[in-house]
Amino acid sequence: METPNRGTCLILIGYVLFLSSLQEPVSGGQEGFISIDCGKTYTYHDKKTDLKYVPDTNFIDSGENNQISSYFRGVLDGNADYAQSYNLRSFPNGTRNCYTLRPVIKGSKYLLRAFFKYGNYDGKDILPRFDLYLGENLWFHVQIVNSSRNSYTEIIAVAPANSISVCLLNRNTGVPFISSLELRPLNDSLYREVDTSSSLVLRSTLDCGETGDIQIRYPDDSYDRLWNTYLRYNWTSIRTTSDSFDATMSEYQPPSKVMKTAAIPKSGFELDFYSDLEKFEWSKDAVGPPKHYIFLHFAELESLGINDSRIFNVKLNDEVIGYNVTPKYMSTTTITNGKPRNYDKISLSIYSVAGSTLPPILNSLRIYISKQLNEKNTHSQDVDAIMDIKYEYKVKMDWMGDPCFPLELRWKGLTCSNEITKSPRIISLNLSSRGLSGKLIESVADLTELEQLDLSINNLEGEIPDFLANLAHLYFLNLTGSGLHGPIPPALQHKLEKGLLTLSFEGFRNSANSKKTVVIVVGSVVSVSFLLFMVLIFVWRRKNKKKDLESSKRYSSSPSAVLLNQNNDGLHFQLKSRKFSYGELIGITNNFRKVLGKGGFGTVYHGVMENGDGVAVKVLSKLSSQGPKEFQNEAQLLTRIHHRNLVPLVGYCYDKDHLALVYERMEEGTLESHLSGTSGRTTVFSWRERLKIALGAAQGLEYLHKGCKPVIVHRDVKTSNILLDRKMEARISDFGLSKIFEKDGITHITTAIMGTRGYLDPEYNITNKLNEKSDVYSFGIVLLELITGKPAIIRSTFEPIHIIDWVQPGVEHGDLYAIVDHKLGDLYNVNSIWKVLEAALACTRSRSFERITMSEVVFLLKECFELETDNDNTVHSVSHGNSSNSIGNSMKNYDND
């Protein structure tokens, strides 16, 4: 290879410089600025600030462009101060519509500002109200009070990922809209009050002493903060024209133009300021006024004589926050209230101390609301990766806002993990038939927790990339018709050979034979912590084949690829899984020696695989009412269900007269055995452990109801069907009674009554009509068992008592002590217990339409778990009489839904 000579290098450098000259230069100080004129169709430079404003089409996929009415356009009449007020984007459709601002730098601080001018754009003259969210956290309740007013709100926050979502939520009180949206990077040393868990929302900003009706912003403020002029009737203004003021040396860096004017009292030695904060709309979730920060900026503007002094105290709401303050000449001094306080008013008094010859001074102030960011956002790495995918392939699937939160607005095609203490991770991605074209980008490999990936029926190009093998948890990959071609990378081939991956891949050209069409369907074995993706029941055509019991000594770990047709029994599947012979089951279970319990299919036996993994072998009893049909039903369901709170399946056996399913062994047994004291565990479940188990089980049921299409109803939810693994994580088992709704929109089906006494939905028992609320009822009974430690049917001297009837007297009298399991002692959060009890009673209402959903149960249990976690170090005492928490009063909230 020749080395380019010096002349060639100079030519190349000159060419690069020429190309660079064609690019529009970024104005000094504007690096990282994003300025969006919403609803505008072209780019322009603002006449006042010279900031470059762009249309919003690259930041959002939804909404409609509009202009304010001709009347209000005439009122503005080209006023440069309102250049961004003419256009807007409205959102008549959808609950949540989000702007995605990128690029930003994860962990850096940003100022974001949104403007709203209604201007009767829709001709309805109806002033809307809606919510503005930053990611999944409420930023502001937008309430338009005047058609002509140009309103704005501003927040300072840390970027949770390499993009920031700003979302407008429809509250059914008018159509949300936005006029402009701005993002400004801040120096990380500014506003130490802001971190990943808290933000600052601007309440008020005052440039004291300025007499003109002006607003100071960029370029006078390099961060483009807004400063509104303010001078009270009993203040007078002083100013300096000196150019020696350097505002950059102060912690909060108010601009020098703001600091070069100040207010002093017209007479006397006291400056006063008052603001009624009750007019500000609080957060929905706040109790009382929110917490405020106040920043007061001072600078001496006069060169004082030897005998002159300006010394003062600063009192905020009767608390002195600054003693003997002596502002420095041409330098900023900032006084704050130190930590956020709940204020319903700001009463400020700045007064001179004894011996001061000059009155106090105030140059500027800013008041912020401190907002805690309590919601867990999707893991930033996953957000960045899925955003890259969205923009690379121009995905149009309502992908906006946080990918995983809230649950009801989770992005289409995604499944997310739902752990309490960790940020959600994307574990399943379905991009089938989405028109993807070009090469598969490496950002897919950044979804490191991905378990399932479907890229089928697309127009991708190139060979199957090696980086897919880096997805350590991936156990299902569908490339059928994706456009990708072979050969299969060695690392993926290795996973296939070890049975760690199911690959569906057809119609590719193998490099060895370009004309040969290959179809690969490889069974998979999932790791201990994840569910098996496919289950197969293999129906032998040969009815009397002699079984080789020597196979009990051999356990093949290789994957199987099989396709079955219909046999005489009418059982037919095209499913995949490991097949066990009956002889193998004999060896695995040591001739069915150890019985674990009785299930809907008959007896469950303990077994050990060749690699040492424990399994539970569920063998269909000949006397069981569940025959091949129910066995088929369970197998079909298990091929669809993948969730960390559902029991994983290892394989199956259909060998002449023998039907069996082989599950991963749950080391800690059933929840029933622990609550009844028969598990052998010497310690009692704490309330926090019970909450964790309840939440895990609820999430498993929620997945059956919301994450599966068609909807799956369990029909036999009970404590003996909630199993616990070695980490005491709950897993739902036994889907043998499950039924599937074959069509969306069907709210119930009529079926034979099946279930367990004590847990059975009374409405289902009467009407034979089944829906998800039947599971909700049963889960409510489970919650009552966790609270009370009692079984669903309680034995008594006279006659058995149902657990709902047993708790009712305690509920009516507000006597929590009479209800709660005494083995818990008094180490629990009273409010947490009450909330779970409320949820249980809301689950077990007699009429199904009055019951809450499993998604609501999950939400309530998460709240309770966080409440218990927040109080881990607190001993929670419980009075033995009436509790201050009234279950009757709190239940009204459900009744009014």
Automatic annotation (TrEMBL):
Gene Ontology CC entries for this record: plasma membrane
- In this chain, the stretch annotated as Disordered covers 875-897
Q: Which UniProt keyword terms apply here?
A: ATP-binding, Kinase, Leucine-rich repeat, Membrane, Nucleotide-binding, Phosphoprotein, Receptor, Repeat, Serine/threonine-protein kinase, Signal, Transferase, Transmembrane, Transmembrane helix
Localization, UniProt: Cell membrane
Membrane topology per record = Single-pass membrane protein
- Family annotation (Gene3D superfamilies): Phosphorylase Kinase, domain 1 (3.30.200.20), Ribonuclease Inhibitor (3.80.10.10), Transferase(Phosphotransferase) domain 1 (1.10.510.10)
SUPFAM superfamilies hit by this protein: L domain-like, Protein kinase-like (PK-like)
Q: Tell me the protein's name.
A: Protein kinase domain-containing protein
Q: Which organism is it from?
A: Zostera marina (Eelgrass)
